Amino acid sequence: MTAARRLRLATACLLGFAVVAAGPPAGAAAAVKKPPRSACQQLAKRYKDVAGAARLVTVVRGDDETGRISACVLPRGKVRTLASWDDGLSRDWANVVGTAGLWVLVEEGHRDQYGGVSSSLTRFAVRSGKRLSLSGYGCQIGGSDNGGCPDGTSFGHVAMAASGAGAYEVTDLATKTTMLQAFNPAGALTKLADGPVETLHVTRTQVHWTQAAVSYSAPLPG
């Protein structure tokens, strides 16, 4: 073997050693270190997100016999079950009333052939898992609807801002009176007006509603 050939082989060996010692290219290393998709990211990818928000994922899965409502905060927030039903007889149900910011309003209900009925409205803080009960009733009313439950509360119009504050129309079933009530992010309630409302919406700082075709507004509680 000539001296020139020995020099070329030695050079090739040194270059190969340098590549091995240096490790894979930066792009390959980045690909190897990329974390796996989180449970929240998987939920967003596999199911239809009804929230339509940048960070909040809210998903309704199943059918009228078995299902659940799940929510989480991207990218790696805990997936929380906000409501579920599984009785096989289509007696239980739940739906998303609204979403804003990192908050979800969920209605749950039940009606069976024996006259059992119930309904509730709950605000969920998805990041923390805390819940605020806004209305609810439950009773046995017999084989047919004879006017509903004697006590508890039901809700009508409802609106919520990204802060978690909002307002809703609530009826006391015992007194058969209706009022407009506001709630702040911490869950404190404030009465805004007596009587049913015709329209209701909120902005970042205000509650707006109409009664008897007259428009009203009030500060949204902080």
Describe this protein's structure.
The protein has 222 residues and is of the alpha+beta class. Helix content is 16%, strand content 47%. The chain contains 3 helices and 14 strands. The strands form 4 sheets. Strands 4-5-6-7 form a 4-stranded antiparallel sheet, with no helix packed on it. A 4-stranded antiparallel sheet has the order 8-9-10-11, with no helix packed on it. Strands 1-2-3 form a 3-stranded antiparallel sheet, covered by helices on one side. Strand 2 and strand 3 form a beta hairpin. The longest helix is centred in the first third of the chain and has 20 residues. The radius of gyration is 28 Å and the shape is flat. 25% of the residues are buried.
Main beta sheet strand tally, sense and closure = 4 strands, antiparallel
Helix and strand content put the structural class at alpha+beta
Taking strands numbered 1, 2, ... along the chain, how are they ordered across the largest sheet? 4-5-6-7
Low-confidence stretches: 12-23
Tally of alpha and pi helices: 3
Q: Compute the gyration radius: what is it? A: 28 Å
Number of strands: 14
How widely separated are the two ends? 86 Å
Mean pLDDT: 88
Shape: flat
Order of helices and strands: HHHEEEEEEEEEEEEEE
Helix percent band: 10-25%
Beta-strand portion reads over 45%
